[in-house]
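INTERNAL TRANSFER SHEET
From: sequence group
To: structure group
Subject: Periplasmic chaperone for outer membrane proteins Skp

Please process the attached sequence and return the structure record in the designated field. Keep the field labels unchanged so the import script can parse them.
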Amino acid sequence: MPQHKFTIQRVINVVLICALIILLFFQFFRQNTKVVYIDSAKLFEGFAMTKEMKRVGEKEFNSRKSALDSLYSFLQNPSVTAVQKEQLMEDFIRKKDEFEKFNQSYPQEQTSKIWSRIKSYTSEFSKDKKYQLVIGSDNQQMVLFADEKIDVTDELLTYLNKKYEGI
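Return from structure group:
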């Protein structure tokens, strides 16, 4: 019987050692999970493409507004005949509608394009850094707590801008 007790003890020890090794193995991989967060608003505003699209949009906005203002100014001229005024008014209304549509659609279209590019570059960045999860937050409203050590906003922003500029 003592031999049998010794064998049972050995089996129990082997099972416990295996369980401990498995536990340590899972603990090791769990600790190596790389989760980081970024400030989405800061990333979007600092991205070179955002700045470029904003400049292009402002230039187009100013050009359209200037044309509209000139047309309106010409409409106010007392030397314009009633027939000319009617034609100019139709032009003015059409251009004003186009201007308003531009003001509504341009920011939405460009924002969509910018976020698409940011997501693409972030995917590459995450693979390079071996990040398993990148959480975006707007001024940390969605993330209730995050250690500053895992905030990679500035690092990702540098990567995005270099990638966008072809560096």
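Handover comment: The mean pLDDT is 86. The chain is about 75% helix and 5% strand.
Transfer complete.
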